[in-house]
Amino acid sequence: MHQFAIEPLFGTDHLAIGGYNIAFTNSALWMVATVVVLWIFMLGGMKRELVPGRWQAAVETMTGFISNLLTANVGPEGKRYVPYVFSLFMFILLANLLGLLPLGLVGLHPFTFTSHFTATGVLAIMSFAIVLIVGFYKHKLHFFSLFVPHGTPVPMIPFIFLIELVSFMVRPFSLGLRLFVAMTAGHVLLKVLAGFVINSTNAGAGFGLTVGLSSFALMIGISALEMLVAVIQAYVFALLTSLYINDAVNLH
Amino acid sequence: MPQIAQIAETYASQIFWLLVTFGFVFFVIGLDMVPKIEATVGARDDKIAGDLATAKAAFARADEIEADYRKRDADARSSAQHLIAESKAKAAKETEAKIKATDAVVATKIAAAEAEIKAASTSAMAEIEAVAADAAREMVAKISGASVTPEAAQQAVKAALVHG
Question: Coil, helix or strand for A204?
Answer without folding.
Answer: coil
